[in-house]
């Protein structure tokens, strides 16, 4: 006979720590639930008003240590009155309000300070409408939880389509580990001397001025006065020394010595802004920036979707990997109180839709997408229509898929060495609805 496993695991620790946090808040203390990089918890209590008795603090320390086991931090209860700089905790810009809490008279507020490495920037969700980003420039992220869903090809098609409509378009290849849209849009000899990875490395040392980061797309005919620019992940190098891409890549995610407040997210945003300024200096400010993000749960994808874009096109095929991955991301956004913000800036794309049985495939895809996106929708009673909970059939809803048809002719295609491939009839047919819908969404958001 086996005995129950009473060991506290990662998932068990959260409700235990939260229960104690609610108890401290009920005593009138503003409480910050702090989780460190290993998942261990401590409670920071603002005891400046009212004061915490030593007996109460010791009791909560003991309770957390006993109940959390290895998931208790070394000091389980931190008091503002004991901290040298309490504002670093209680006024941190990374604090997140506990979703669903209602602060009543005499109760304190509960917030969360969650420290991680990968994916730390999935929350909070913001938009890039700042003085630096340029009013009138719309940033669109193209993201797939899994690779191999045609994201980079779709970036090419959308960039060219928008340029043909007269827009000045800048494509940034943010898939640093596996560059996609850069090689698709630029011949090697036309690649600028430096890439995004160079800006990330040089900016950390205050050495990013004067980098050659952008070039016009190679061998692509753009109609009218439209323009298509590219900022690749890697440059071609100077030719005087080896271009050590891997060595640079190994250094882009670390913190900057001496300036810990300069995060990877800040550096990536500065790189995007620098590329935008480079196009503006050589021609005009881009109307649209397409951010070809890397796949998976990764800091680049986190920053791109949560912070850098106005609209994120989420690519996926109808399989368990797609839905399990997006369900994990949506659950994280919902748990951190970001559901309303993120659902306003995402749209599902059904990539590689089979031409045969297309209607049946899309119907099944839509239903599974709705079930997944419902995590982000309001949980409403049957007679309540005040919140946001669109039906599965609502074509304007975030879950409603925009299709891209699958064609074997595109598999393994080298776009740079096959000029005019995007003009072929089967390619236009495959991307027609995607290009029409994405263009409408971009124009509506501009």
UniProtKB/TrEMBL annotation:
The CobQ/CobB/MinD/ParA nucleotide binding domain, residue ranges: 140-264
One Pfam assignment: CbiA
Highest taxon listed in the record's lineage: Bacteria
InterPro entries referenced in this protein's UniProt entry, alphabetically: CobQ/CobB/MinD/ParA_Nub-bd_dom, P-loop_NTPase, ParA/MinD_ATPase
Keywords of this entry: ATP-binding, Nucleotide-binding
Gene3D superfamilies for this protein: P-loop containing nucleotide triphosphate hydrolases
NCBIfam families for the chain: AAA_KGGVGR
Name this polypeptide is given: KGGVGR-motif variant AAA ATPase
Biological source species: Streptosporangium jomthongense
Top-level taxonomy: Bacteria, Bacillati, Actinomycetota, Actinomycetes, Streptosporangiales
